[in-house]
Hints:
The chain is α+β, with helices and mostly antiparallel strands. About 55% of the residues lie in helices and about 10% in strands. Strands 4-3-2-1-5 form a five-stranded antiparallel β-sheet.
Amino acid sequence: MEYIQSQLIEWEFAPTVAKYLSITIMVILIGLICIISNFVSKKVVIRLITHYLTKSKFPRAAMVLEGKVFQKLSHIVPAIIIYYFSSTLPDYQLMIEKGAVTYIIIVGLMVFHALLRTVNAIYQTYEISKTKPIKGYVQVVNIIVLTLGGILVISNLMGESPLILLSGIGALSAVLMLVFKDSLLGLVAGIQLAANDMVRVGDWIEMPKYGADGNIIDISLNTVMVQNFDKTITSVPSYALISDSFINWRGMESSGGRRIKRSILIDTTSISFCSGMMVEKCKQIHFLSEYVTYKEREISEYNTRYEMYEENRVNGRALTNIGVFRAYIENYLKNHPDINQNMTVLVRQLSPSEHGLPIEIYAFTKDTRWNVYESIQSDIFDHLLAVAGEFELKVFQNPSGNDLKTLLEDTSKKPVRYKVVG
Length: 422
């Protein structure tokens, strides 16, 4: 700049004018150098890097380019040039150096942030990311680096050592604990969730307290995002999964079976002993022929051994329609192609109530998908409700308005008889 100023004075410019004009020319020259260097770094260097990564055999190299790490890194070059040429402007050298260093620190933080996001994005392409997510840890590292970067920026602008600012943070620890309470709780919860493998991305969890009933789509430092089955998104605090209870359906999905636990209510007034005609009818049913034949022989031998008289069934053993129906359901389920036979298959009676006698079906479907499971369950109960009448059983149902209407109509059709007294 002194050379430019001396040349301007030789060209008969006033010293004051020559001074400010030389500063202007120097600023323009530095600006042009910065623009050229930035252009070269983006159009030449970054293109070479992009070409190399594109041709690379590393399958996830494109994700590095999507993170724009090198584009952000190219902004450091002009700042370095400005810092180098700051000595040419001695009156403003200190201010320029502080500005350039501050800019370099900020760009460095942006580069580090983009690098962390890229690392997390690459990690999520691996299967292990579903069981061991690192997004929470990445966010913790990002917060720590941003905090240290902020301290460096402030110390650079103040012209003081960063250690002085760091020593003052101890006095603000209580305030920091209050400000970053959720982040600290989330960090501890994230470590426990990952260590105990409590939740993964893709798990179906149910947490009524927070209105969550769906699949986990994201696990971060502070929150776990759940996409409910109605396509709404519920945000659950990470530490809530440690402090509160929730249901994780992953065990069901990985077991290869989804439970059916539903009852058919039988009207107790329709329960009776099987007549000879019904026994013969049951022998024609595919799932009952062997059972009825075996039971008929067993009952006959028992009654003969203990001299029970068959003319009165109360005195001995006999087949009942509810027992035969229960045996039919059990054999039907054991031969059903969509029922997992390696898991519990159970048909049992529950305690009778004012709603009748519950016959509970306890079994597991082979397919755990919701829509398939509901279809299998509906098909099973459609069939069982339809065949109950074949065993002279009635399914219990509270009287409806149509039942009362029919009863009133039948009553009105009957002739009214009057008795004359006297």
